[in-house]
Design brief:
228 residues; four-stranded antiparallel β-sheet; binds calcium ion; alpha/beta; five-stranded parallel β-sheet; 8 helices; globular
Length: 228
């Protein structure tokens, strides 16, 4: 059974999430503080996904996200953000989250996002081993790794999926909608901005100069193009 860690200090919201995830067939581990979440993650090596609130009494959710991501690149991470805090979404994604859900959310909405993220992770895992080499980059679809001039670049699952899409379509202009639907799934109804934020993060990792990108070029008003 897939195991999800839920970090939320408000007991009412936490139990509501727990009940609904259990109903959807997931095993759930609960934490009410950032430290508790980090401890439980350490103890239970088989946690597949983490849902993290941001405003907490001790360590904030971004820091928890950063530490979980540093410990596990394959983990799925969803942030719970407040509607009034627009920057939360961007900050969350920059610290390594895969997705965010805005409060207040319905049980169906959260479960749909969790299911979609599991499908994305699962789809990548099922891919057969193959090497894609372009310019200085080598993508290994068996190990999910990316090397640049033989040096490993550490990617999140989402960043890996974007790189795979780019390297499978060299020189082709991809719209932001195309990227969203390929990487996040056709049923994903989040904002297009999630694409831009992930590209920004990816550029920092793969470009020689992320302010003057040479590999992932922007096509204004449309999307992005890969050319290595
Ligand atoms: Ca909170």
């Amino acid at each position: 059974m897939k195991k999800i860690l839920i970090l939320e200090d408000e007991v009412n919201i936490r139990s509501f999430v727990v009940i609904n995830l259990k109903r959807a067939g997931y095993e759930v581990v609960e934490a009410g503080t950032g430290q508790e979440a980090l401890d439980k993650f350490q103890e239970q090596k088989d946690i597949d996904m983490a849902i993290l609130d941001i405003m907490l009494p001790d360590i904030d959710g971004f820091e928890v996200c950063r530490r979980l991501r540093a410990a596990n690149k394959q983990l799925g991470i969803i942030m719970l953000t407040a509607r009034t805090q627009e920057m939360d979404k961007v900050t969350g994604l920059m610290t390594g989250a895969d997705d965010y859900v805005t409060k207040p959310f319905s049980p169906a909405e959260l479960t749909a996002r969790v299911d979609a993220l599991f499908r994305r992770i699962g789809k990548d895992v099922a891919c057969n081993g193959e090497l894609l080499s372009q310019g200085p980059f080598t993508l290994n679809t068996r190990n999910h790794t990316l090397d640049k001039y033989g040096e490993r670049i550490r990617l999140t699952q989402v960043e890996y999926s974007i790189m795979k899409l780019f390297m499978a379509n060299p020189g082709r202009a991809l719209s932001r909608e195309d990227i969203r639907s390929e990487v996040w799934g056709k049923d994903y109804d989040g904002e297009l901005k999630i694409v831009d934020v992930n590209i920004r993060r990816l550029r920092i990792k793969i470009e020689d100069d992320s302010t003057n990108p040479a590999y992932i070029t922007t096509i204004w008003g449309f999307g992005y193009k890969w050319g290595a």
